């Protein structure tokens, strides 16, 4: 019998049952304490980034975007996937901020890192704080992004929005509350290039390998 906290949960077999545009589903057989083997469903996903952007009036720049799985427009932080092989997370955040809001920022720092739902997926997210905003060029938005509405609100109003159910997007809730907590505690934020050990790579490697085989 292993001591709690010391067992090695080794994957003894694995099968991929689906691979799509933004995720894959695999079934892993995992060695459990006591000698048994249990099946675990794992959703592989790209890493993602989001941006808590503060304008010159100390207001958060949020977006209201349609999300088909829930059939509603949600208040969110500008965000997107790290779906280019080897892309730097900060570069991805800068790209997404420009594409979704038409803004660029002079100052960047890491606000918080999140494992979004580790019970079934490796999806992870880094939220940046962006300050010193200015307009920048962007391509004409397409699909859902063509319907994005920009919403600016104070940090206090955003906190109230997370607590009264106006803001329910998990990324936005985490970013808003992390920003409020950092301010109230005087915490020092990490630099924008701080290491991110939790960024997922399995799905990106899978898609890159499939692309190489197709060439």
From TrEMBL:
Coiled-coil boundaries: none
Alphabetic keyword roster: Hydrolase
Pfam families this protein is in?
NUDIX
Fetch the SUPFAM superfamilies from UniProt: Nudix (SSF55811)
Question: What are the record's GO terms for cellular component?
Answer: cytosol
PANTHER family xrefs: ADP-RIBOSE PYROPHOSPHATASE, UDP/ADP-SUGAR PYROPHOSPHATASE
Please report the name of this protein according to its UniProt entry.
NUDIX hydrolase
